Amino acid sequence: MIELQSKKPVLNPTKNHIFPLLLLLATALCAQDNTRNEYQKKLFNDTQETLEIHDYVVVARLFAFVHNMNQKSEIAQIALKKADSLKSIFRKNKVKSLIGNWKWISKDPDWVIRDDGLVGKMITINTDEMLFFELYRNSKKWKLVKTEKIKFSKNPESYSFTEVLYSNSQVWDYNIDKDTGELTALYIGDKIEEGYSEMICGTLVLYYFKLQ
User: Cβ distance 104 to 119 under 8 Å?
Assistant: First the structure.
């Protein structure tokens, strides 16, 4: 297991690490089979040093690339374990940050009256589940409409590796705005037989504020 450390502002990750690694990636893609193992080892060692930048999503993605270069090699198995360890850590951190009761913020104008009588939505998030509630006009209590086990998408092209995969195959990304404290739920796309689809037209985003 890899131990995370607090961020240090003294290092510029883009300037000092990311560009050279991207160049190495491009070179590795063009390498012949007899030299690919050398590039794999070089990239693995450089990625180890890149842990200093504390952008663990980037590092996990680099370790995953190391693994994919030659999945049968011993170093590939080590890289895969390191990538999985990092994913496990920042996924736990993500869930921990989301725990609580979140009430929906309607972005509709005040004068809009919904035909379905819906007047409120709420999500209760714990370490294992997300519970979705709705409140309707003239109703005295919240109605539980859906429960989702927290299951992360395994899309290898994920931006954050923390998107949640619903039971209906929808993929959503949950994040907290550092400035407003609001929770945003962004619909990414769907898990399909061939892999993962992406939302092309428009953007579906829901906003919530945390109940005390």
Answer: no
Report yes or no: 67 and 76 within 8 Å, Cβ to Cβ.
yes
Q: Of the given ranges (65-69, 73-77, 159-163, 189-193), which has the lowest mean pLDDT?
A: 189-193
Burial of 56 (0-12, 13-18, 19+ CB in 10 A): buried
Tell me which residue of 173, 12, 4, 9 sits closest to 94, measured CA to CA.
173
The pairing of beta strand 183-192 with beta strand 170-176: antiparallel
Report the C-alpha gap between 155 and 165 in whole angstroms.
Answer: 10
- Would you put residue 45 in left (φ > 0), alpha (ψ -120 to 50) or beta? alpha
Calculate mean pLDDT across residues 19-35. Answer: 59
What would the pLDDT profile of 171-203 be if each residue is shown by its tens digit? 999 999 999 999 999 999 898 866 777 765 667
Which residues is 191 bridged to in the sheet?
A: 196
Classified as helix, coil or strand, 190 is: strand
